[in-house]
Amino acid sequence: QQQVKQSPQSLIVQKGGISIINCAYENTAFDYFPWYQQFPGKGPALLIAIRPDVSEKKEGRFTISFNKSAKQFSLHIMDSQPGDSATYFCAASGTSGSARQLTFGSGTQLTVLP
Amino acid sequence: DAGVIQSPRHEVTEMGQEVTLRCKPISGHDYLFWYRQTMMRGLELLIYFNNNVPIDDSGMPEDRFSAKMPNASFSTLKIQPSEPRDSAVYFCASSFGTGGTGELFFGEGSRLTVL
């Protein structure tokens, strides 16, 4: 119930390409879905987040797509750049019970080739 | 403003020794979280505090682990005795007002190696 399943584990994209990372969840109590970006030797940092009242949220080159009926959400990075090379974590949380705190996906290591 | 500050950044110790990790959250934040990151298990929530009070420690792996928050600006995570399987990066994070449903600010982590 608490799991957030993330795929792929690793992703290699050419500069200028589109990077797509997918996540799926089971707990219908989740109502907050952030993505965190982590560079080597650093802590994760919030990249973008969505709540289920919208199906898409865009911030610059980063877009979250959300499918409530399928219980899936994804991160799209347009025009991927070498500086985007990092580990990306999806996460989910809700407002009640054990869902109150963030549950993280397993992470996707993105490499953008120059 | 300074972010979440953790110390030490790196710790190498021998099995059986006591390890103490320290965290200074962002001033004004009322939630503090301790996470552990490993390749095998990813990011795991160990314990979190609200207004210095431990709320949920169900993620603490065993009695060898303990955490305290004596005041709003300081928290410790202690492992006694340490074991090789405790080797991981330990992150402290803080947030304001929203617990897990808002932005968490992470420190840079403490990399622990237990030989």
In short:
The complex is a heterodimer of chains A (114) and B (115). By secondary structure, chain A is mainly β. Chain A contains no helices and eleven strands.
Properties at a glance:
heterodimer, A: 114 residues, mainly beta, five-stranded antiparallel sheet, globular, B: mainly beta, seven-stranded mixed sheet, four-stranded antiparallel sheet
Topology readout:
The complex is a heterodimer of chains A (114) and B (115).
Chain A: E1 4-7, E2 10-14, E3 19-25, E4 30-38, E5 45-50, E6 56-59, E7 62-67, E8 72-77, E9 86-94, E10 103-104, E11 108-113
Parallel strand pairs in A: 2-11
Antiparallel strand pairs in A: 1-3, 3-8, 4-5, 4-9, 6-7, 7-8, 9-10, 9-11
Chain B: E1 5-7, E2 10-13, E3 19-24, E4 31-38, E5 42-50, E6 53-56, E7 65-71, E8 74-79, E9 88-95, E10 105-106, E11 110-114
Parallel strand pairs in B: 2-11
Antiparallel strand pairs in B: 1-3, 3-8, 4-5, 4-9, 5-6, 7-8, 9-10, 9-11
